Amino acid sequence: MSPQEQPSVVQPTVRAIRPSREVQTLQRLPYFVGVSGETVGARGMSMHLVVIPPGARSDPHAHRGYETSIYVLQGRVETRYGEGLAQSVVSETGDFLFIPAGVAHEAINLSATEPARAIVARNDPAEQDNVVPYRP
What we know:
mainly beta; 1 helix; six-stranded antiparallel beta sheet
């Protein structure tokens, strides 16, 4: 590989990140990318801000090989999960939510007028590479 073809590698160091733009995820939700392998050279985690528009929901999916922790900053979100998405839990402002690796789920903003916002942390620095669509 020539030097021009070498992938750029971010060297880990202490960094402050302010997301400059929204990206669309495989789950069909807008993210503001914070800590990841791509942004800071993280090797074992990622952390982002997710915004679920009023009345919106993610596509059903699972995370192959990594766990997810969520802290709800604003709103009420129903997470349907498990086989056939038959189980459900509602989290709201101030709640933490844990999703084990491989568990199918979808997130639904219960408000028709206000966005829901949450911090999402995962033990995978390139988590979008391991999102698996789920068809109930």
